[in-house]
Design goal:
Protein name: Gfo/Idh/MocA family protein
Largest sheet: 9 strands, mixed
Strand content: 15-25%
InterPro entries: Gfo/Idh/MocA-like_OxRdtase_N, Gfo/Idh/MocA_oxidrdct_glycsds, GFO_IDH_MocA-like_dom, NAD(P)-bd_dom_sf
Distance between the termini: 51 Å
Keywords: Oxidoreductase
Order of helices and strands: EHEHEHEHEHEHEHEEEEEEEEEHHEH
GO molecular function: oxidoreductase activity
CATH architecture of the largest domain: 2-Layer Sandwich
Strand order of the largest sheet: 16-15-14-13-7-12-11-8-17
Structural class: alpha/beta
Number of helices: 10
Oligomer: single chain
Bound molecules: nicotinamide-adenine-dinucleotide
Organism: Halalkalicoccus tibetensis
Number of domains: 2
Radius of gyration: 20 Å
Length: 366
């Protein structure tokens, strides 16, 4: 078993109350590496020096491991694995910089990047440099989802026909939910997507615009459909996720009641998920967040050890990003978008910039 020197880029200020303006995912990653006996956190970099200093104190990093610029950190600390937890619009320069500097593995936060072009370039650059690239979709390791996948693989609902999602939003949480839909369908790419959205009240998360309501449908190459209805339309789906098969259904909830239920032959039974839900570490509900984070980091290390591709890989992540950017492109084009996606930008951002969408600015509470 190898030992790995770990560095974090983008520590965050570790807020007491994580929000879409700052979650300090760098802390969440580091907490998971600290739990892993093959990992040693040796360095951190943040453009805000006091963030890096506070982080170093928390995780026992020596003074010489504290940096402002990530390039200097890569040269000085020569880490084996780098976690990237900076805002999405700068994922590309940081990840590409790490790949070119010869880092062996990069574990980056979702979403992959702020545009489709940037997402593809970033994944391709890592592939060319032989770098193991993963994106942190830690909910893949939450028991309600892993158990649902196990039931699917065991044929408990026959052949999967569609995955419907009534939870969250399309872009920010969608980087998890649409990704999970892909996981349920063995990580196939989609072949088309059609969507409509409503964006009347400004909502910016982690630096990116986020619609208020979305209705999207997409089809995978094997004929399975994905459907997502969020915001005012979320009640349409009856659950956070509903997986419909030829012989039954699996229902996954996020708040109340049984987290996972199996429906077949006219009856419904709860499935044991050891009390796990799917919330994020650091939030009030997030009792299990750190557990999922630990499993995510464990998957990164396991891939390094075995050479096997993780479900968190950049290649698989592009399947999700293509549906998200493709969904926004469908809104812009007013029609179905056949994939592969042939635009470069984030169509939602472009529609806001051009005035085609003009959400009402939200008053600052301070
Ligand atoms: N996986 C999840 O469930 C989840 C949850 C929340 C946020 N996120 C993602 O995590 C990422 C980070 O979001 P956050 O809210 O944790 O950010 P944050 O604002 O809390 O922290 C980002 C840090 O990056 C630093 N930074 C900015 N530019 C830098 C650079 N060039 N070099 C070094 N440091 C730099 C900032 O100073 C800040 O300290 C985003 O991609 C976000 O979407 C993922």
């Amino acid at each position: 078993m190898s030992q790995y020197d770990i560095a974090i880029i983008g520590t965050g200020p570790d807020p007491a109350n994580p929000t879409v303006e700052g979650f300090a995912m760098g802390y969440r990653h580091a907490e998971a590496y600290r739990e892993h006996d093959q990992c040693r956190i040796v360095a951190c970099a943040d453009v805000v020096p006091e963030n890096a200093r506070a982080f170093a104190e928390e995780f026992g990093i020596d003074d010489e491991g504290i940096y402002e610029g990530f390039e200097a950190m890569l040269a000085g600390a020569e880490p084996d694995v780098v976690s990237v937890a900076v805002p999405p619009a700068i994922h590309e320069p940081v990840v590409v910089g790490c790949a070119r500097a010869g880092v062996g593995a990069i574990h980056c936060e979702k979403p992959i990047a702020h545009t489709w072009e940037s997402a593809q370039r970033l994944v391709q650059t890592c592939w060319r440099h032989g770098v193991q690239l993963t994106f942190n979709r830690q909910r893949r390791f939450a028991r309600p989802f892993t158990e649902a996948k196990r039931l699917l693989d065991a044929g408990e609902i026959g052949e999967l026909e569609r995955v419907t999602i009534g939870w969250g939003d399309f872009y920010d949480l969608g980087a998890h939910t649409v990704d999970l839909a892909g996981m349920f369908n063995d990580d196939r790419p989609a072949e088309w997507v059609i969507a409509q959205l409503d964006y009347r009240e400004e909502d910016v998360r982690f630096g990116a615009h986020q619609e208020n309501q979305m209705f999207a449908q997409w089809r995978y190459g094997n004929g399975v459909h994905g459907v997502l209805s969020t915001g005012a339309g979320s009640g349409l789906i009856d659950a956070a996720f509903l997986l419909r098969g030829t012989e039954g259904a699996i229902q996954i909830d996020v708040e109340d009641g049984p987290m996972l239920e199996l429906e077949r032959g006219g009856s419904r039974e709860p499935v044991d998920v050891a009390g796990e839900d799917m919330h994020m570490a650091g939030t009030e509900e997030g009792r299990f967040g750190s557990l999922f984070q630990n499993r995510s980091v464990a998957a990164v290390i396991e891939s390094l050890e075995t050479g096997e591709e993780s479900g968190l890989s950049g290649r698989i992540g592009l399947n999700t990003a293509e549906i998200l950017f493709g969904g926004y492109e469908s809104v812009r084009r007013r029609g179905r978008v056949d994939l592969p996606l042939d635009v470069a930008d984030n169509p939602l951002e472009a529609m806001v910039d051009s005035g085609a969408l003009s959400p009402e600015p939200v008053e600052d509470e301070d």
